[in-house]
Amino acid sequence: MNTAASIDSAAASAVQPQVIRVYVWDLPVRLTHWLLTGSIVVLAITGFYIGHPFITAPDPAGQEFVMGTVLAIHFFAAIVFSLSELARIVWMFVGNKYARWNQMIPVSKARWRSAWEWLKFYVLFRPVTPRFVGHNPLAGMTYMLVYAVCLLSALTGYAIFSVSAGIGSPMQVFSVLVPLFGGLQTARWIHHLCMWLLVLFVIHHVSCALLVARAAKNAAIDSMFSGYRFVRPEDLEAEEAEE
To answer: Are strands 228-231 and 20-23 parallel, antiparallel or unpaired?
Structure first.
């Protein structure tokens, strides 16, 4: 019985690939990721309410102050959103190698080839994930576009807020952006569009994360909490050889 169990165990070990635990996402990456996620949710809900109020108060507005409260929440969430994005951009230059800007923008032929293989995986023309440790190249390029949308959303939001900011408010400095965006109404339209683009990205991001986590079985989702992924030694060696 013991011999049979040993044989079964050895056979199972031979089938399952050997993996090692690698610290991929350092604390600033994980922290900014969740702060951006939370602030986007709050901003989307409060922003939708600001554009289309759906709460009615039985008492006079001067007593309930619902819109004022929602505006305040929206503004403070925007500060968290902006500071988190700024911190993540800074970390692209000072963080570990998996957080660097060259993980977002493919600067080598190998990463361009990998991006093509990842595209085939996402459209279901490839059954298994290509080799990766940190950001895969296609996801990295997508994140750069998302950061651009985040920046545009923040700038248009501050431009809109600057119009109603009190005299002497530091937010009035953003009023110079209003004409650059083609006027207040155009800035509002761009801001609204950015919100929906980010909402759609969140849905897409969660779907892709679940797909990759199931296909790669490398703790892709868990790593955004712990920082660790499980990768094959040969994948890690191949990536280090490309650098």
So the answer is: antiparallel
Q: Which domains does the chain have, with CATH numbers?
A: 17-242 (1.20.950.20)
Q: Tell me what pLDDT residue 8 has.
A: 45
CA atoms of 237 and 18, how far apart (whole Å): 14
Q: How far apart are CA 243 and CA 89, in angstroms?
A: 21
| Residues 49-92 pLDDT 10s | 998 888 777 766 666 688 889 999 999 999 999 999 999 999 99
114 and 201 in contact (C-beta within 8 Å)?
A: no
Residue with tokens 């109603």: 164
Q: How far apart are CA 225 and CA 30, in angstroms?
A: 7
Give residue for tokens 């895969």: 136
Residues of the chain with pLDDT under 70: 1-17, 59-64, 238, 240-243
Q: State the Cα–Cα distance between residues 55 and 203, nearest whole angstrom.
A: 26
Q: Which amino acid is at 147?
A: Y
Continuous H helices in the chain: 2-15, 27-51, 61-64, 66-94, 109-122, 137-164, 177-180, 184-216, 223-226, 233-242
Q: Which residue in this structure is represented by tokens 């801001």? A: 191
132 token code pair: 């990766």
Q: What b-and-e string marks burial along 150-175, b requiring 16 or more CB atoms within 10 Å of the CB?
A: bebbbbbbbbbbbeeeeeeeeeeebb
